[in-house]
Design goal:
Layout: H1 11-21, H2 33-56, E1 60-65, E2 70-73, H3 75-80, H4 86-92, H5 96-100, H6 107-117, E3 119-128, E4 134-146, E5 149-158, H7 160-248, H8 254-284, E6 293-296, H9 297-315, E7 317-321, E8 327-330, H10 332-348, E9 353-362, E10 365-372, H11 406-417, E11 421-426, E12 430-438, E13 462-466, H12 470-482, E14 486-490, H13 493-499, E15 509-513, H14 522-533, E16 539-543, H15 548-556, E17 561-563, H16 568-579
Parallel strand pairs: 7-9, 13-14, 13-15, 15-16, 16-17
Antiparallel strand pairs: 1-2, 1-5, 3-4, 4-5, 6-8, 9-10, 10-12, 11-12
Helix pairs in contact: 7-8, 7-12, 8-11, 9-10, 9-16, 10-11, 13-14
Length: about 575
């Protein structure tokens, strides 16, 4: 075999080679072989690079004929379709329409779109896997032409996970919609239930309103009835109490004294129960309106001392009163009711020993205290004693047993007046009740001097009693005459003028009932008598009326008041005070 150097070309052969190499005549004299080799190597490297990309692409790539099987495919497509290598895939797929598409009916629409547009992007379909299952794919398809006809170049992306995510999202959306629907139904049901409950609540509220209005009306009717009935109920009690007080001060046989005392206790119980019930009712219905004024403490203490001194003597208890020159801002009648209750309890539970009424200044308030040396109250019962019908039964209790309303009334009065009430007790040593009252800056001349006590000797004093109840007149006359008073009685001012004053009798004191016959009042009767005699005779009103309007009227006319049923001790204290020398009318 000849070597390349030994090969000789004829001029015509050499020209042909140069033309095939694209070399001109002048360049034939040069050697262009290295450039050709480099060009071929470059093409080979580019081919290898594209082949590397083709073989290692993440997405499937294949070429196919429209009417035939696959020409070539990469490993990624084989994996997508469940084959081990691309050659196996190409061998198994004879026709793109039937062997690769899972739904063969899609081929015709797909081909029509390709022929119309020449390309498709993002077309989603399903390929058939080796095991016959379907895999979801997204196609980018190019339709080309070569010397053999139509050629498909297809890029395939496995969208199984995306489909799963979409299906999961769809399922979650459906579940969410279902939950929303369920929740909506629940809310609708709850709203309907709420509407029903609101309607029921409104019906209940309306029924409660009707019941409340009925109860308020019933309470108003009750209050009106009690107010109207109190006068009629208290009148006979008042007459009976006055007669019994008269008998108590007379010397009777021992057996009779015992009977009179029993009658007195029974009447006192009925009176206290009735008064307490009336007061509880009025306080609960806010029918009591406080009338706050400046009150000398000494005046309160002296009135209480005169009232309870006979009780102390009867029970052989030492009663001390320690007053002061201060004034307090309060309602006289209500504050007296509180202190009377404290003193009544002190004497009731102190069979022997001492009871003290005093006061201590606490900043801008005065704490009025009632001490006793009784048996004391257990600590676990201190709260109970302020409840209705609660009493502490004790072997040392003397006198009439209460009904358990006194301290309940005290608590209501204290709350209404904003006068805090306190209690301290030690078993076997005694109890202290207190009420804190604001001090008054107004200076008032004491009605009674601290060193003075009301006069008890009423012998020969002339008193005019005006009352439209015959029984009351008889009882008052008997009691006052028991005190050696000269008593004149009348049912109104006209009768007093006609039968007493016209004969030259000038009374030293007038005691008049408030409600008289023919719509007249004791205030008017007092004014008529004073006008007739031409002098301001001391006077007082005795009444069962406890209304704020009545108190204002009495105070406006300077008339002290004594509420029915009248206790003999309180009546004597008031009479003694009004008859003492230097007492001014209206004090």
């Amino acid at each position: 075999m000849k070597k390349r150097s030994e090969v000789h070309y004829s001029p015509s052969d050499r020209l042909t080679v140069e033309r095939l190499m694209g070399l001109g005549g002048q360049s034939a004299r040069k050697s262009h072989y290295p450039e050709l080799v480099a060009k071929i190597e470059e093409l080979e490297a580019e081919r290898n690079r594209y082949k590397l990309i083709f073989d290692h692409a993440q997405h499937g790539i294949f070429q196919a004929r429209l009417d035939n099987g696959l020409i070539t495919a990469n490993p990624a497509l084989a994996r997508i379709c469940g084959y081990t290598d691309p050659q196996q895939l190409c061998r198994r797929v004879d026709a793109f329409a039937t062997d690769l598409l899972f739904d063969a009916d899609e081929y015709s629409p797909l081909l029509a779109k390709l022929q119309l547009c020449g390309k498709l992007f993002g077309y989603e379909t399903r390929f058939k896997r080796q095991d016959g299952s379907a895999v979801a794919v997204s196609l980018n398809v190019l339709l080309k032409q070569d010397d053999r006809g139509d050629l498909l170049e297809v890029f395939v992306a496995d969208i199984t996970e995306r489909r799963k995510a979409q299906n999961n999202l769809k399922r979650l959306n459906e579940e969410l919609e279902q939950r929303v629907a369920d929740r909506t139904r629940e809310l609708v049901s709850l709203n309907q239930q709420l509407v029903s409950e609101n309607a029921e609540r409104k019906a209940i509220e309306q029924a409660l309103k009707v019941a409340r209005d009925a109860a308020e009306q019933a309470n108003k009717s009750k209050d009106k009835y009690l107010a109207a009935a109190s006068h009629d109920l208290l009148q006979p009690l008042n007459a009976a109490r006055l007669l019994v007080s008269t008998l108590q001060e007379r010397e009777l046989q021992q057996d009779n004294n015992h009977l009179v005392e029993r009658i007195h206790m029974a009447l006192e119980g009925a009176e206290e129960l009735l008064s307490d019930l009336l007061d509880i009712s009025r306080l609960d219905q806010n029918a009591v309106q406080p009338d706050l004024i400046s009150i000398p403490v000494n005046y309160l203490f002296r009135m209480l001392q005169v009232e309870f001194q006979p009780v102390a003597e009867q029970r052989q208890v030492l009663f001390r009163v320690c007053g002061n020159g201060l004034n307090v801002q309060s309602d006289t009648r209500l504050l007296m009711r509180v202190l009377r209750n404290f003193l009544s309890n002190a004497f009731r539970y102190t069979p022997r020993g001492r009871v003290l009424l005093g006061a201590r200044r606490r900043a801008d308030r005065l704490e009025i205290q009632v001490w006793d040396t009784g048996p004391g109250i257990p600590e676990n019962r201190l709260d109970d004693i302020f409840r209705e019908f609660q009493q502490i039964d004790h072997q040392y209790q003397t006198g009439r047993k209460g009904v358990g309303l006194g301290l309940a009334i005290v608590e209501r009065i204290a709350g209404m007046l904003d006068h805090p009430v306190g209690v301290r007790s030690q078993l076997g040593r005694g109890t202290m009740f207190s009420v804190s009252v604001p001090l008054s800056g107004e200076v008032i001349e004491p009605i009674l001097q601290p060193q003075q006590l009301p006069q008890h000797d009423l012998s020969g004093r002339t008193i005019l009693v005006i009352d439209n109840e015959k029984d009351i007149l008889v009882s008052m006359k008997a009691l006052l005459e028991q005190w050696n008073c000269q008593v004149y009685v009348a049912i109104d001012a006209i009768e007093a003028i006609d039968y007493s004053l016209s004969e030259g009798v000038i009374p030293e004191l007038i005691l008049a009932d408030f409600h008289l016959d023919h719509n007249t009042t004791g205030v008017a009767a007092v004014a008529q008598v004073r006008e007739y005699v031409g002098m301001a005779i001391p006077a007082a009103i005795i009444t069962a009326d406890r209304s704020p309007e009545g108190r204002k009227l009495f105070r406006a006319h300077g008339l002290p008041v004594l509420n029915k049923p009248v206790k003999a001790g309180k009546l004597r204290a008031l009479v003694s005070h009004l008859l003492q020398p230097g007492c001014r009318v209206g004090e």
